[in-house]
Amino acid sequence: MKLTEKENCFFIEDFFKNGVIAGFTKPVLQGDVLKDIPEIPCLKDFRIAFLKQIHSATIHHVQEGCFLEGDGLITDKPGIVCVVRTADCMPVFLCSEELNVVGVIHMGWRGAKLGILDNINYDLKTFKAVAGVAMRQCCYEVGKEFFNYQELKLSLKEKNNSLYFNPADFIKRRLESKGLKKENFFDLNICSICSEEKFYSFRRNATDFRTLSFIVRAK
User: Fold this and answer.
1) Does 8 reside within a domain?
2) Which residues, 6+ apart, have CB-to-CB distance to 95 below 8 Å?
3) What domain count does the chain have?
4) Which pLDDT tens digit goes with each residue over 182-207?
5) Is 177 part of a structural domain of the chain?
6) What is the pLDDT of residues 136-179, one digit of tens each?
7) Is-above-0.90 flag for pTM?
8) Which residues neighbour 55 within 8 Å (Cβ) at sequence distance 6 or greater?
């Protein structure tokens, strides 16, 4: 897998196949979905599906461009670009070439705790998944109450009397429990807080701007 950098976004290449376009915006764009997605030339003619994100466990299976309330979008229709907005939470890209299904999920610790990944209503043995730009364990300090969250405990690490959550590890474990093959998971390992690219981070500076993560099957 490789990342190809363009003027206003990065594309994930050599991982998803069958006409799938996936990637995420650079901080030159501010995260206004209806304004920014058409600024990416290869996406400008697609219908857009996006969300009022509420840190829930709700995933929508969509058949057309739309604006819904929830935290995940999945489609088996070509020409629908599914988009989530993040500034520390984890975007999770999903694709099954066999089923012609693509999707993207917005997952923070609340969504993880509520079981959003368990609401992907597919056996994931034919899927590939990518963990996108998000706060990583290096910066994801949490409170001791996280030891009480059974769903999250295996992805916690103590260091220097502080506790850190590893969202990519949590996602990998959860998706593999739903059938995803180990070799079909890839972590971009880009931290929204400490990366050189300075992606938007709410924890770092309480920004209102967002990174857009997108995926579409073009044909």
Assistant:
1) yes
2) 16, 20, 22, 101, 102, 103, 127, 128, 129, 215, 217
3) 1
4) 999 999 999 999 998 889 999 999 99
5) no
6) 999 999 999 999 999 899 999 999 999 999 999 999 999 999 99
7) yes
8) 71, 89, 108, 110, 111
